[in-house]
Amino acid sequence: MELIKPGLNIPFTNYRHIAVVLSTIVNLLVLVLLFTQGPRLGVDFAGGTVVQLKFMQKVSVNEVRAALGQLGTGDTVIQDFGGEGSNEFLVRLERTSIEIGALGEQLRASLSKQFGPNGFEIRRIESVGPKVGKELRERGAWSVIAATVMMGVYIWFRFELRFGIGAIIALIHDVLVTIGALMLGHYEFDLTIIAALLTIVGFSVNDTVIVCDRIRENMRKIRRESLEGIINMSINETLSRTIITTGTAIMVLLALFALGGGVIRPFAFALLVGFFSGVYSTIFIASPVILFWEKGAMKRKSVAETVVQKSEVRAKRTK
Amino acid sequence: MRRSVAIRLGLFIVATLVSLVYLAPTFVHDLPPWWSSFLPTDRIHLGLDLQGGSHLLLEVKVDKAIENNVERIKADLTNVLRDRGISGVSVERVQGTQIQLKVPAASVERVRGLLKSDFPNLTVVNTQASGGTTEFFLTLSKEEIRSLRDYAVDQSLETIRNRIDQFGVSEPVIQREGQQEILIQLPGIQDPERAKEIIGKTALLEFKLVDDTVNVEDALKNGPPPGRQILYGYAGKGEGAVGGEKVAYVVESRTLMTGEYITDARVRPSSQLQGPYVELILNSTGARLFEQITAANVKRRLAIVLDNRVYSAPVIQERIGGGRASITGSFDIKEARDLAIILRAGALPAPVEIIEERTVGPSLGSDSIRQGIISFVVGISLVIVFMIIYYRGAGVLADVALIFHILFLLAILAAFKAVLTLPGIAGIVLIAGMAVDANVLINERIREELRAGRAPRSAVEAGYQHALPAIIDTNVTTFLSGLILFQFGTGPIKGFAVTLCIGILTTVVTAVYMTRIYYDYRMVTRKLTGISI
């Protein structure tokens, strides 16, 4: 079977201006959203407590809130978790067990009053102090930045500087798009999201590597073609690879998203968005950056070349 | 060529057998007895999020330990000054960890000499002379403070380990993290709240005299007289549990004795009206000290104070020899047992605070495992079917490599005692989707070479050769981001990073080198006339 017929020649680079404008707008929007509204932080980063409760019978959010009583004061969020009929709830409390004391015990006591000692189960408690949250937040952000730069440097080292720059810009794009999608989907940012972002950085660059590898090969093989032509040709030739390698990853991610449970779902969502974005950015962002870079260099070079040619002509004449 | 194929095939068979041996304990329930005598018996370790348990991060309040130390030095200094007959010197602790001395002009030189000879670890940061007195500001040296901090954390770790050992948790992890933190993992723990109580108590036991000459009401209103302090206890219930009636005591600030002399603490059954009590057994120094204290204070009340809370304040009826003391208070048997554990293990040199807690119940863990396995089976089936449809024969080959990759990955996890977490399972599923990427790159290249008119044999050779650089580069980048994640991550996330990194290594081995054996074998037998791709 063949998804992409050989000989396909889509002039991708022709769309680069539209793509760059579109992506810049999207990225700027995400940045604005990030710095004005800010992402919804999970307890890992914001501090606080999250409790996963399972009830033996059907219970409404309001009943849970009522049963929490005193503990539920402050900024408490109660949400359904684990889908229809599972009777599971995620309760997010602002305070941690450090402030409340024996949180688990108090929780058990107040829920027992309402639902009986065997009417519910505390499945998970995660409490993170504000100091730890701040530290994790900073380290998380730095690790994503470090990974992005490292990918760029690796590509620079293996190929050329302009390829590295293209890769970094494409990765920044992927990370921002993923962050934007997570914010739109009202997902909380926590450690697993950082893990997803780092994986996106490590995986999205793969398509860029494959295209760069082909560009380099074609540049050696075909001397007459313009760089734009070579980039287009290389993208087309590697298109089926780009789609299939990402496609198989997307297949398993869909399985994880649908069947992996509540903890894994946000992680799988982030990766799905990031991997899709990775294919797009390789074709429409990384390659144009190489081209822009090249054109800038060409201008300087062509002036130099004409000077050389003139002097050669002069040299011939004197002979 | 023929030999090389045989050698490589042999290596893979050996690797497969070794992997199966490492995985047997995880998947086979009752292994024959001869197995455990010389073959591995470790199962794949499950993280706390999969088997249930508590993860705690404690911060040791090291500054408090330093303050305590300075307080002790202050007391020593006061004693030495008194012994040497230097009078009129006031000694105060200021700004947390500084000691301020106000010395009359006549004694300045003697104090200076004494500081130099008896307190070499103190440095004078400032002196001010005004009127007839000179003020000295003393502080501990930087090295001294650093070693005190280290000592406080190490000692806390040791004490907490003792407490957990006595509490009875199998395979706990207790280790130092960073400057002043302690990481504790308690797998499969049933009562995390109780464990936290036991771990987090400072357990500083002090014996102080109650001053009955001071009216408690007055002291509460106007503050305690000099050298006295107010401490509280709870009537009707020990352990300071909320609900009991709060009782104030005026006690002498001076501590007569601390819990450092305790060699053992035991729960004794209830006697008459009281509930169970905890009997302390003191070492010989402690026994002598306790005898002196009780002899000197007959008919006075001795407050037994744990973490600034008065447990009981019995009247000393007579001199008590034999090195036994008891803590009463109306606690139940469980509270008494926990108290005994804490007292046996000793006090923490500084208070600790739980700054992070993650507790997962066992039922959630098994649900997570089930969901992980289901998404693994579904995800991998999708990939396997797709590869067969898209690449036919070469797809089957890639699928075989994929299955071996999973076998090797799990075996390495078992062999290196890596911890499998829920994100780790997600990592295995994800890596399965990436594992065939190398085959996709190779197969696409072979197709290209075939289209360019090459013979199957040279198409295969060129395909592997030209695809390899990109395969290496793509895997290196993913591996690098996995390493960064490993550096950054904690607990479950580290598990993901581990499966990601190991998985990348095994995919390269199986997807590139293992599939190549097949083609080489067919070339050797001269049967590579057509490729199903």
What does this structure look like?
The complex is a heterodimer of chains A (319) and B (533). By secondary structure, chain A is α+β, with helices and mostly antiparallel strands. Chain A folds into two domains: 12-40 and 132-307, Up-down Bundle (Multidrug efflux transporter AcrB transmembrane fold), CATH 1.20.1640; 48-128, Alpha-Beta Plaits, CATH 3.30.70. Chain A has ten helices and four strands. In chain A, helix 1 crosses helix 7, helix 6 packs antiparallel against helix 7 and helix 6 (130-158) runs parallel beside helix 8 (191-221). The mean pLDDT of chain A is 86. Chain B is of the alpha+beta class and 533 residues long. Chain B has three domains: 2-51 and 361-524, Multidrug efflux transporter AcrB transmembrane fold (Up-down Bundle), CATH 1.20.1640; 63-144, Gyrase A, domain 2 (2-Layer Sandwich); 201-358, 2-Layer Sandwich (Gyrase A, domain 2), CATH 3.30.1360. Chain B is built from 15 helices and 19 strands. In chain B, strands 11-10-16-15-9-12 form a six-stranded mixed beta sheet, with helices on one face. In chain B, strands 7-8-2-18 form a four-stranded antiparallel beta sheet. In chain B, strands 3-4-6-5 form a four-stranded antiparallel beta sheet. Chain B is elongated. The two termini of chain B are 24 Å apart. The chains are: A alpha+beta (319), B alpha+beta (533). The interface between A and B is large, with 72 and 74 residues.
